[in-house]
Each structure stands twice: as C-alpha cells, then as structure tokens.
Amino acid sequence: MINTSRIADQHVGEQLSGFIDGELTQQERQFVTLHCEVCADCRENLERLRALRERIGNASLSEVGEDKWRETMDDPTVQLTQGIGWLLFIVGMLVIAGIGLVGFLFNDDISVGMKLLIFAIYGGLATLLFSVLRQRLIERKTDKYKDVEI
Amino acid sequence: MKKPGMRQQLIQLGNGAHALATQMLGNGDDAADAVHDAFVKVFRKPQAYDENKGPLTPWFLRVVRNQCLDLIRRRRPTEDTVDELSDSAPGPEASLEVIQRDQELQSALTKLTSGQREIIVLRDYMDLSYAEIADVLEIAQGTVMSRLHRSRMALKEVLGDVEGGARLP
User: Fold this and answer.
1) CA distances to A94, A105, A128 from A100, in Å
2) Is pTM, for the whole model, over 0.95?
3) Choice between B1 and B50, residue whose per-residue pLDDT is larger
4) Higher-confidence position of A23 and A85
C-alpha cells in the first residue's frame, strides 16, 4: 500500500531511469506514476530522459555494418587457406623459375649478350611489379576509404 | 564454429560491440581491431562460452570489453583519444540533420567518463537489461540503476550545454 501523503514530497531520482527502462517493481512504478502526476519537475525530467534514451537508441554510434563482421568471422579460415594456397603457389613458382633460370644460364646456344638483354627485360619487369605491389600494400594499410562501398 | 546459431548472433552483435569499444577506446579503428580480436578469440575457443551460464550477448560483450581494457592498459598513459570519437560518424546515406544530431551526441559523450559512456551504450544503444549490464560490467545488479541514472543526467546536462550554446548568437 502506497502512503499517499509522501507522494508529492518525495522526489524520484534514479527511479525515473528504472521507470523508463521497465526495471521497477509494480509498486515502484505506481509510485513514480503518481508522483509525476503531481510533480512538474520530475515529470519534465522523466520526459527529457525518455527523449534522451530514444535519441541514443536511434543514433548511429557504429557505422561498420554486418558485412564487415561477417568477413571478420570468416577471417581465420580464409587467412589459413589463403596462406596455404599462397605458400604452395610461391614454392611451385620458385622451383619452376629456378629450373628455367639454370637452363637459361647454362644454355650454350644463347649468346652472353642476349642472356644479359633478356635478363635486363625480365629483371626490370620484376622490379616494377615489386614496386607497384609494395606501394599498393602500403596504401591498403593506410587507406581510410577502403571499406567504402560505391 | 560448432554452435550453429552462434555465428549469426555474433555477426549481429558486431555493431553494438563496436559502438561499445568505440566509447571505451575513443577511436573507431582501434575499436574495430578490438572487436576483430574478440571474434578471433571466440572463433578459436568457442567452447569457452557455456550457454548454461547465461545468454551470449553479455558474455561476448564482456570479451570485447576485456579486449578494450587490455588495449587501454597497453597504451601510453598520456595518450588521449576521446576527441577522435567522431571517426565513427554516420555514413553519407543519413540526412544532414541526423548527422548533425548524432555528431552532437558523439561530442557530448566525449565529455563523460569512459564508465558513463559504457553503461549508456549498453542500455540505451544495445538495449541490454540491468541484469545483463551487471554481467558485462561485472558489477552488482543493484548499482546499475543508480550508475546509469547518474550517467544519463550527466549526458543530459552536457547536451543541454551544447544545445544552449548552439542557440547563442
């Protein structure tokens, strides 16, 4: 039973938060309701807290998006399989390139000048490729807009 | 991941966890890293979550929060990051008015303590119950209401100052 004589005098503080969050007992809710009917200050406070709660609820405090988290969840598996794939690919390419290089260097049918020329062309291409890849990797790390979808 | 519904539930929790981490770390990029690390931890050891001990949401948010606390501990003590909160501002699809209101809110949140921001995000943004908030913050359930109310009043006051200040000529 609520003592009606103290309803008007006893301001409700933190119970206002409990009230808008639905975390009060039935008796407490009743007390807050009755008090707010007679107390303009608490009524105004209640409305402002309610508006604040709604404002925060509707705000965008994170704009990352579910896709990003889906990718993140897949990340460990993807990283592992990609890592294995790249390792096998690079090892295979190195072996083939090594065999080709040895065959090329020890081929007596090709003159030294021609060997140097071919070496310069492929060496230059490899250097350019490495340079572009390096630049791309640096940009990827610092690019703020990499996750922007167009 | 062995638990079938867990993956989807975690994906849906991502944004809320990111909002919480952003308020704790003051930086959207660091927050994304913290949530990512939390995901990796859960992914590597999903059996760490025991559904008999409670729902997934508070448990995962506790993992994220601990991750953030680790990051804060590792940071230099002089490092100040709260001014960078506007990094996680709304995207271009939001209207200008909404963007301004959200930025104003973000700015007001930076004036609060990390603990005040945390509890506001958990309740008003993520809609967690007081019991769940107590679980995430590892505090007694009885203290949630008073702490939340103080935090809301502080935010209300800061927003009042901001809005009052904005009206000045």
Assistant:
1) 10, 9, 21
2) no
3) B50
4) A23
Pick the residue from chain B with its C-alpha nearest to A148: B91
Contact B152/A61, CB-based, under 8 Å?
Answer: no
A25 touches chain B (CB under 8 A): no
Q: Decide if A69 and B35 are in contact by the 8 Å CB cutoff.
A: yes
Contacts of A75 in chain B (CB under 8 A): 36, 39-40
Q: Residue B87 — pLDDT band, cuts 50, 70, 90?
A: very low
Tell me the per-residue pLDDT of B30-69, one tens digit each, with 9 for 90 and over.
Answer: 898 899 888 888 877 778 888 888 889 999 999 999 999 9
Q: Cβ of B102 and A60 within 8 Å?
A: yes
Per the CB < 8 A criterion, the answer to whether B22 and B85 are in contact is yes
CA distance B55 to B43: 17
Neighboring chain A residues of B7 at a CB cutoff of 8 Å = 73
Question: Who wins on pLDDT, B42 or B85?
Answer: B42
Query: Residue A38 carries which side chain, given as an amino acid letter?
Result: V
Nearest residue in A to B150, CA atom:
A14
Rounded-to-integer distance, Cα B82 and Cα A4, Å: 47
- Judge whether A68 is closer than 8 Å to chain B, CB to CB: yes
Strand locations in B75-139 (E): none
Contacts of A71 in chain B (CB under 8 A): none
